[in-house]
Design goal:
The protein is α+β, with helices and mostly antiparallel strands and about 130 residues long. The chain contains three helices and five strands, in the order αββαβββα. The protein has a single domain, classed as Dynein light chain 2a, cytoplasmic (Beta-Lactamase). The chain is globular, with a radius of gyration of 15 Å. The two termini are about 20 Å apart. The relative contact order is 0.18.
Length: about 130
């Protein structure tokens, strides 16, 4: 399909996937990533084959919304990120503007600081892509 034949949503998804692929390729520790709307719609994802992007998006949006409410309840200010640590690795949820979330899955790592830094930079890139495709 040529670029001219793609819908605006397809063009946006392609641009978002490009940013996500760049993130995934930036570190051997990063295994998957997704850009999710605040209402749980998966706008673009680079996930494993056995992951349902829509279900994953809905769960991440719910988790971030609950964390935001908890942060407000204990007067911690605007939520910046959520870290979920499991036996097989970590997942970061980072706000990418008011209406989007970056989800990053990484191996249990030695260099979490770099993953945090990369995730914040990529969240800003995603926001730029989203704003340019309104």
């Amino acid at each position: 399909m040529r670029e001219a034949e793609k819908t605006p949503d397809e063009v946006r998804a392609s641009a978002l996937r490009s940013v996500l692929r760049e993130l995934n390729n930036s570190s051997a520790d990063i295994e998957a990533s997704a850009c999710i709307s605040s209402d749980g719609y998966s706008m673009a994802a680079v996930l494993g084959q056995d992951v349902d992007a829509d279900r994953f998006g809905a769960m991440c949006a719910s988790l971030l919304a609950l964390a935001h409410r908890a942060s407000q309840e204990i007067q911690r200010g605007n939520l910046k990120l959520v870290l979920v640590e499991g036996e097989q690795g970590v997942m970061l949820l980072v706000q990418a503007g008011p209406d989007a979330i970056l989800a990053v899955a990484a191996k249990p790592g030695k260099n979490m600081g770099m993953i945090f830094l990369d995730a914040r930079k990529v969240a800003q890139k995603l926001l730029t892509v989203l704003e340019s495709h309104k």
